[in-house]
Automatic annotation (TrEMBL):
Its main location: cytoplasm. The keyword Cytoplasm applies. It comes from Lactobacillus kitasatonis DSM 16761 = JCM 1039. Participates in chromosomal partition during cell division. May act via the formation of a condensin-like complex containing Smc and ScpB that pull DNA away from mid-cell into both cell halves. This is Segregation and condensation protein A. Keywords: Cell cycle, Cell division, Chromosome partition, Cytoplasm. Transmembrane segments: none annotated. The lineage of its organism: Bacteria, Bacillati, Bacillota, Bacilli, Lactobacillales.
């Protein structure tokens, strides 16, 4: 796609990662093989359109433009022809790719919770039943925090990437959460405890893994399962609760 053919709706982006994700998805570009020169040119074209319209540009957009130009310049550096064996270097796009994947995941999770919030009837808040003087108790040993959940989920995405060829592309199709809830119900009917990693290994796409992750959160919210982690960055163990929630 030529940058002249690119249509960008300026007010609709929440930040530079949102813009980059739009450029990649709208052109059906493989997120693991980003044509950095093409994307950088289109990104700078977008900033130019904002300046022409006298729109205020957040500083993070310029930070991202410098990041893109730095990555592009690394590809333009000449290779050392005098070294017989060149050790393979890390792809300079890797860090950006991981940021885009994590942003895509949390954007979908945010949209899911926003939709759930709109479905919940209006409620009236009340003062906390527990006195403010009562100290908040830490989670019992073996349970997991939201940061640990996010880190573990990123590891699952990397595992999925390793099973996929580099020519894979992002699919627009979404995996219904109800399908993944049914999948987890069937697994937990067979065993009281299941591994999240083993469930994710059965998935065929990133959309499936995201659907599985959201289904796990939904079942936890309904107190149908417990989520536990034996060690940092380790697997998540999902345990079915009894009828009385124990």
């Amino acid at each position: 796609m030529d940058k002249k053919d690119l249509t960008v709706e300026l007010p609709n982006f929440e930040g530079p990662l949102d813009l980059l994700l739009h450029l990649i998805q709208s052109q059906k570009i493989d997120i693991y093989d980003i044509p950095i020169a093409q994307i950088t040119s289109q990104y700078l074209e977008y900033l130019g359109q904002m300046q022409k319209l006298n729109l205020q540009i957040a500083g993070e957009y310029f930070v991202m433009s410098s990041t893109l130009l730095r990555i592009k310049s690394q590809y333009l550096l000449p290779q050392n022809d005098f070294v017989d064996e060149i050790e393979p270097e890390e792809d300079p796009r890797d860090e950006l790719v991981q940021q885009l994947i994590q942003y895509s995941v949390f954007k979908k999770i945010s949209a899911y919770f926003k939709e759930r919030n709109e479905e919940v009837p209006i409620t009236v808040s009340k003062e906390a039943s527990v006195s403010k003087s009562v100290k908040v108790q830490p989670l019992p040993k073996g349970q997991i925090t939201s940061d640990e959940l996010a880190t573990t989920f990123s590891m699952v995405l990397r595992r999925l990437k390793m099973r996929k060829p580099n020519t894979a592309s992002i699919q627009a199709a979404e995996t219904p959460i109800n399908d993944m809830i049914d999948f987890l119900h069937k697994r937990l009917e067979q065993k009281k405890k299941v591994s999240f990693f083993s469930c994710a290994d059965r998935m065929q796409s990133i959309s499936d893994v995201i659907g599985l992750f959201l289904a796990m959160l939904e079942l936890s919210r309904k107190h149908e399962i417990y989520i536990m982690q034996a060690r940092e960055f380790g697997d998540l163990n999902l345990e079915r609760t009894d009828v009385n929630g124990k």
